[in-house]
Amino acid sequence: MNVHIIDHPLVQHKLSIMRNKETSTADFRKLLQEISMLMGYEITRDFPLEYEEIETPLQKMNAPKLSGKKVVIAPILRAGLGMVDGLLSLIPSARVGHIGLYRDEETCLPVFYYYKMPQNKERLVILTDPMLATGGSACDAIMRLKKDGFNNIKLMCLVASPQGVKAVNEKYPDVDIYIASLDEGLNERNYILPGLGDAGDRIFGTK
Ligand code: PRP
Ligand code: URA
């Protein structure tokens, strides 16, 4: 299974504060941004390097620099937006796409409403969404990206259920999944337990 759990103590500490129902919208948003930056450090670990001759004040050297095409950060709206700024602080030149999906409250199935991605399909896509519950939204987003020609995709979530991880992994074994926590499961409304509630509402203060 291509699942990477980022168990860094700072990530785990910040996630615990986010889970607390007393945490304010402002703190929730800030913590999500900070965790996204810390997770981004791991996600970018396998980025290729190339060597370029430069001159330090003392001598010439072959210095490592990032090579390859620029990255695309693709948040699943709305909640995925909360992970964009943290990643951009690490990769300022990244492009940003948008995939609009919401989960129907009755059926829990994803409803599609927006798609905008850069033209160059060779780029690595970091697909962001804090919550991987049934996996329906992530699978739908990956399906659309692949149909559009993107074949190098990493999925970055904060909290995942075993069902969500399994769903993505079975359908898209080539997509690496990065999470901060693999939680216990889902409740009868397909919310992650213990989870952190509705991520979109907590980020944007809409409840
Ligand atoms: C949430 C979350 C994911 C999806 C996860 O979005 O941000 O996109 O649900 O559930 P799934 O794995 O079962 O598909 P929501 O539909 O609440 O939309 P929002 O981000 O606009 O609030
Ligand atoms: N969407 C959320 O925001 N939270 C969950 O636990 C499940 C879906």
Structure commentary:
- The protein is an alpha/beta fold and 207 residues long.
- It has a single domain, classed as Rossmann fold (3-Layer(aba) Sandwich), CATH 3.40.50.2020.
- The strands form four sheets. Strands 1, 4, 5, 6, 7, 8, 10 and 12 form an eight-stranded mixed sheet that branches. The chain has a three-stranded parallel sheet with strand order 9-11-13.
- The structure holds 1-O-pyrophosphono-5-O-phosphono-alpha-D-ribofuranose and uracil (URA).
- The site of 1-O-pyrophosphono-5-O-phosphono-alpha-D-ribofuranose has 23 residues, from β4, β6, β9, α4 and α6.
Cα-atom radius of gyration = 18 Å
Number of domains: 1
- Helix amount: 25-40%
In what range is the share of β-strand residues?
25-35%
Named at the architecture level, the CATH assignment is 3-Layer(aba) Sandwich
How many helical stretches?
A: 6
What small molecules does this complex bind?
Answer: 1-O-pyrophosphono-5-O-phosphono-alpha-D-ribofuranose, uracil
Anisotropy-based shape:
globular
- What is the typical, i.e. mean, pLDDT? 97
Based on DSSP secondary structure assignment, what is the total number of beta strands?
15
What is the terminal-to-terminal distance? 36 Å
Which CATH class?
Alpha Beta
- Class computed from helices, strands and strand pairing: alpha/beta
- Main sheet properties: 8 strands, mixed
Q: What fold name stands as the CATH topology?
A: Rossmann fold
Which stretches of 5+ consecutive residues score pLDDT under 50?
none
